[in-house]
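Encoded backbone
================
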Amino acid sequence: MGSEEKLPLNNLSPRALHPRFVDHVSTETRERLRMFESMLKKWNRSVNLISKGTLNHLWERHFEDSAQLLDCAPEAKRWLDVGSGGGFPGLVLVIMAAERGWEAEFTLIESSAKKCSFLRCVLFEIGLSADVLETRCENAEPQNADAVTARALAPLPKLLAMTTPHVSPHGVLIFPKGRKRQQEVVKARQMWTFDLQEKMSRTDADSAILLIKGAESAKTAT
C-alpha cells in the first residue's frame, strides 16, 4: 500500500494565504494572459470551452487555480496536460513556465478538433510553443512525462488508468480535486497502489491538489 501525507492547513482564507499571482509577473506575461482571456471569451460563444457561469471569474477560478500547479513539480522538464479543453491548466502552465524562464516542454492532449484549434491559435497569438495532440489520452503514444496534469476531467480511478501509461517512472501525477476527493481516493485504492501527498489549494479552502507517485494497478502489483 502507498503512503499518504497531508500538508498542514490553517484557518486563513485562500486569498490571505496567497496574493494574486498576476501582481508578481511581468507585463509580458500579463498581456499573454489577457490575450488568452480575450480569445477564450470570443471562442466560447461557439465552442463550449468552459462554463459560461465562470467567465466573469476567469482569473481566480481558472488562471490562478491552474498556475499553482506549476509549483508542484519545479524540476520537471517534460509536462503533459490531459484533456486540455479551454487551456486549463495546460496553457496557463506554458505561460507561467515562460515567465520563470524554464526550459520545459509541454504537450497538451485534447480529443476535440475545435478545442485543439483553439489551443493552437492561442499559442500562436501569445508567441509560445507546445505540442497539441488531437487524440484521446488512451490512444496516444506513451509520453514519459515528468509531470502529468488533469483538471476537472474524471474521477480519480479513471484518471489513474488514463494517465499512468504517460508518466515516467519517477514522475508525478498532479490532480486538483474538490471536497469529495477522499471518497475518490478510497475508491482508487481498491484498484491501485500509490504514494499520495495532498497539498492545500491556494484558491479554494475546500480543495486540494493530489500529488501521486508510483501508481500501479493492484492486479499488476499482486
Summary: The domain at 12-221 is CATH 3.40.50.150 (Rossmann fold). The first helix runs from residue 14 to 17. The two ends are 11 Å apart (CA to CA).
